[in-house]
What does this fold into?
Amino acid sequence: MKRGLRTESGFSLLEVLVAMTITLVALGVAFSAFEGVSGAREAATLLTDNNQSLRTSLNLMTRDLLSAGRDVLVGGIPIPSGNVVPLVRPSPAGTALTFPAGNITLQAVTPGPGLGPVVNGIATDLLTILMVDTSLPLDSQFLTNVAGDGSSVTVDPATPIDTPGNRIQPGDLIWLSNSLNNAIQMVTGRAGQTIQFAPGDPMNLNQRGAQRGTVLQMQQAPGVYPPTTARRVLMISYYIDASNPARPSLMRRTNLGQDRAVGIDIENLQITYDLVDGTATVANVDAPVAPNTPAQIRKANVFLSGRSHRPWSRTRQFLRNTLSTQVSLRSLSYMDRYPAEE
It folds into this structure.
């Protein structure tokens, strides 16, 4: 009787080691590919978020620049000048900027090259623009009264000024105009239809002792004013706030009210201007230099740059992006002095 042969089959140690090596290599390749895709997706997300912040900021600035100078006098609105306290200019937290001492008007556009905070070694710019607020038709009727000392005006009841959401309130800027002169005042209070302009306002606009640019220069005789109208104007400023270095932001401020962040992680704002002086075009200047003036500004060239809200995990560095645009200021008088391309 023959006994059955017993066979043993399996893998040798060498075969197992080779198989494990191949498996580990395959897993490594797959993991590297996954890590690469994940890193690319993270980078794309970071750049997309920053790009959205840049576009939102640039769109809002463009909208305001298109309205700069809306219904404002050519050359600006007279302000107190001649032996006066400097006018306070909206500016970043921790600064105390004023408008240039030699200014006799508030211009539609007031440049501020290098007046913003220094971020990454670069001095950022500041921009202030002026426009009439058309949402409240104060000039539809003549004022019913202007106080002899210029401390208040009374608006015709046909134009209510206490409508919720659009009422006249402290901090508003009011442009007064008649056949003799113009002046701009800051509202310090309101009682019914009477708007009050007490001295010592936050911007120092209500300086009636100035030689020029006050309500008193609008009189035809002491205490007597020709028919006078009023308009509410908006002063809108843009600048970088770097008080929190981890999250620099582009701020938008109306008059001297609370500034609001319109773009997060924005670290640079640079603006240059194109001027038309009646005979030639002066292009891409930081600010008009005499004999040119801000009244000749016709185009703003805006540059914004920002960074991701956190570093990219791959490099431990912030990802950065930039956007720029050119805005023709349609509310200012336009003269086509740009040479035609040949």
Q: What stands out?
A: The helical segments are 13-67.
